[in-house]
Design brief:
The chain is mainly beta and 118 residues long. Helix content is 14%, strand content 37%. Strand 2 and strand 3 form a beta hairpin.
Length: 118
């Protein structure tokens, strides 16, 4: 079974960028790099980069990145692979999409991976 995905779409407002951990209640704060121990990874879709990877996920995500960069491979993107992580009953992904206007339409999407066993 694939990891559960919770999709949240918001308009661009100051309070719409906060995600809380269901295990400990901590508010994740990307501006200050403040994440709880349950955050497995934070993936920024627009730039195809990870802002944070917990030590327990470094090897698994490193393999995903290598597989997606392999020119001879027909594997999916890193994001596609993240969404296929095996469900454990204590892990999930929050996809936070925000849109607004700043000299034209703007949007961003962040994937927060949580694991209650971390």
């Amino acid at each position: 079974m694939k990891i559960p995905l919770l999709e949240i779409s918001t308009t661009d407002s100051e309070d719409s960028h906060f995600v809380h951990c269901v295990f400990c209640g901590h508010q994740q704060d990307p501006e200050n790099g403040s994440y709880c121990q349950h955050v497995a990874f934070i993936y920024l879709r627009s730039i195809d980069e990870f802002e944070h990877i917990s030590e327990d996920y470094v090897e698994q995500i490193g393999k995903m990145k290598k597989d997606s960069e392999d020119a001879e491979s027909i594997l999916e993107t890193v994001e596609d692979q993240l969404l296929k992580i095996q469900a454990t009953g204590r892990n999930y992904i929050v996809e936070l999409s925000s849109s607004g206007i700043a000299c034209g339409p703007s949007s961003f999407t962040v994937l927060y991976g949580f694991d209650g066993d971390l």
